[in-house]
């Protein structure tokens, strides 16, 4: 009888140990799932909306280097775009969409890049086969707060615009 009692005690101890292991693993899995959900769920505060569109003031037949400065601000929600420098600085981390449209000057080709922190990401190209050809491109980028995005010369000469803007740079936060 004593052997039976010892066996039952040993069995009960083993069951308690197994139960404790299961509870511990369950807590760890629950914590991991909560962490995963937190990492992949982002709610954008309506007070943190970020969007801009800017255009150039006038045409240029000679622009051929550096940053294209879009000095006419159409929209600048969140104040991330600087019309003096032509640079967008991310006010918050997130996923952004950037879009450029450029019209080459008369029959001169033009190539411009959307640049993130000095690295070209996409290029818009306007061919010179006819006058005033349009080039466009778009990119989705994951930015950290403080990252910089701008439009940089990649080739050709000049751009065109009119009273209603033709050459523009836009961006907005999507998540």
Automatic annotation (TrEMBL):
Its main location: secreted. SMART domains: C1Q. Keywords: Secreted, Signal. It is found in: Secreted. Pfam families: C1q. The keyword Secreted applies. It comes from the Eukaryota. One of its GO terms (cellular component) is extracellular region. Residues 45-175 form the C1q domain. SUPFAM superfamilies: TNF-like. This is C1q domain-containing protein. It comes from Magallana gigas (Pacific oyster).
